[in-house]
Each structure stands twice: as structure tokens, then as C-alpha cells.
Amino acid sequence: MECKPWYPADFNQALLNTFTEEALTELLKRPNCAPRFVYGVLMLPTVLKYFIGENPTTDITKRMTRACVSGYMLHQISPKSPPVVVQTSNPSDTVQGMLVLGLDVDQRNLIYDLEGGLMNLVDVRAQIRLKDSSLPCHDICSNRIIDAGMFAWYGSKEGLIPVKSTAWPLDGFLKEKFYENIVNSQHRNMLDGSGLFL
User: Fold this and answer.
1) Which pLDDT score, from 0 to 100, does residue 197 have?
2) Chain center to CA of 196
3) Which of 23, 98, 121, 170 is most buried as measured by Cβ atoms within 10 A of its Cβ?
């Protein structure tokens, strides 16, 4: 995954966010806030905030960082559907997404309501990069494995369409009316507190 000029600014900000060891430790210390690995529409901070009921003015990108999970591959139910992940027997198969920290129980339950059904919540080991805060003038990073929850497909694999990359291409979704409605709803919520679709 890489930043692109036409991506939403908050998503590019989340892609560029790299925790220090100290910041990660603080986020992981929060009680009842198990990390979640997301790989579809919930990678977009505006969409994530909408579905978990987070205040639209909250900068959730500070609790997000790009991550990778091994032993899974992206698939789609139809050419325009959001992705699902399917476990494979090959540990070199990977899925790129975002690790989200600091979600409380209610917020994680809202994700469960959205992602449940044909997917199970599974435990995964997400790999992230940390920056070394002891050398502020240098961009030195190290890898770190974080235990997280992720929703994985458990239905029949028959008919699923493999995604040809390790990251779901968001470009098509960003052009859809559904995304535009979420953005507009969040904007209205910031202005008047309504947030209802018109």
C-alpha cells in the first residue's frame, strides 16, 4: 500500500503513521482495547469512524498504522465487492491492511456486527514497523509482531475471486456513492450533530 494524491488525506496520514515503541506500549496498555487488523473499507479512517460511532472530529489516524498478516489471501465475492480474507497453507501469502489500536469493547462489537455473518473473528499476528525515537533525525525502523483480531472468511471458497495483489485497491470504492454518502454524513455530523443519510 502506498500513498496516492487522490486518496483521502486521513488515509494517507494513517499510511504514513509509524509508532514509536513508547507510543505503541501506551496504546497496548489500554484495558479492554485489543487491536484489530482491517483490510477493506475499514482501512479508511472516515469509514471506520462512521461504523464504530466515533466522533468525526477525532483523529483516529494516530491509532492506526499499516500492517501485514501472513498465511492469508484476499478474495472478493464479486468484482465490485469489498474483500474477504481466506486462510491458506502457504505462510508466504500475505494481506496488507491497517492495524487499529485503542478500540473499546463497544467499538469492536460494532465491527463484529458489520463483519460477522460469513466471517469469523480469528487471532492473527500482524507485523508493523516501529520508528526509533532515540534517533529523531534518522528514519530507522524495526519490525514488531502484534497479536490482533481479524475477520476471516469461513464460508465456501467456491466462486470467490482472488485479488491479484496483497492489498485491496481502494480506488473503485472511493468513487462509489456509498463512500460519498459516508463522507457527507460525517461532515453533517461535525456541523450539526445529525449524521443521518439524506
Assistant:
1) 43
2) 24
3) 98
C-beta separation of 161 from 78 below 8 A: yes
- CA-wise closest residue to 110 among 161, 36, 171, 44: 36
109 HSE (CA, 13 A, CB side): 4
Of 75, 71, 78, 65, nearest in space to 143 by CA = 65
| Dist CA 82 CA 29 (whole Å) | 32
Q: What end-to-end distance do the CA atoms of the chain give, in Å?
A: 33
How does DSSP assign 45-108, residue by residue? HHHHHHHHT--TTS-GGGGEEEEEEESEEEEESSTTSPEEEEE-S-TT-EEEEEEE----HHHH
- CB contact set of 186 (below 8 Å; sequence gap of 6+): 46, 49, 50, 56, 195
CATH number of the structural domain 9-194: 3.10.490.10
pLDDT tens-digit profile, the chain (198 residues): 889 999 999 999 999 999 999 999 999 999 989 999 999 999 999 999 999 999 989 999 999 999 999 999 999 999 888 999 999 999 999 999 999 999 999 999 999 999 988 899 999 999 999 987 665 555 557 789 999 999 999 888 899 999 999 999 999 999 999 888 888 888 787 766 554 443
Taking the C-alpha atoms of residue 90 and residue 73, their distance in angstroms, rounded to an integer, is 9
Spans of all domains in the chain? 9-194
CA distance 18 to 15: 8
How many residues comprise the chain?
198
